[in-house]
# Entry
Amino acid sequence: MKHAITDPRYRTGFILVTTLFFMWGLSYGLLDVLNKHFQDALHISKAQSGLLQAAYFGAYFIIALPAGMFISKKGYKAGIITGLSLYAIGALLFVPASSAMTFPFFLFALFVLACGLGFLETAANPYASALGAPETAETRLNLSQSFNGFGQFCGPLIGGLFFFEGTSTEQAAPRMVQLLSLMSLLPLLSYY
# Structure
């Protein structure tokens, strides 16, 4: 008997979870664009800008086990909402960070945002595979994860187009903050 990728009653949930895969791919794709921007705007060295990668992936390392324990106690939905909330807080922290224009503040905002993404990834991977028949779990997970790559492809395009096209680095900061904040809040609202 042939199974659909997901049961129709889980389709909305599957679509929402798949948007999470796109979001963290997009976030990672924007990281290199932000890296160059921070080097120019904050006058930091290339070596110092490597701390962006350390903050981003360090957050994934630090949050994975606590997120797994939280999700096993509270469930996938609570894990996804917690991850989206951390993601939104991190994105909103870019607002005061752009006013202060200090690299440590941006690193902290990025770290909080990446903690949210790590939390989301810990919840979304098993949740995507649970949204339908066990026989098609791998197909659902692979389909969802393909949007991660698409987000990584779109990140530099969006970063270049919306943040920096025809602007100086000082003019780009408010646009970057607005887009990051909006990107984080819209998916969060869809889960409440």
Remarks:
- The CA atoms of residues 94 and 177 lie 6 Å apart.
- The helical segments are 11-41, 46-74, 76-92, 94-100, 103-130, 137-164, 169-191.
- DSSP finds seven helices and no strands in the chain.
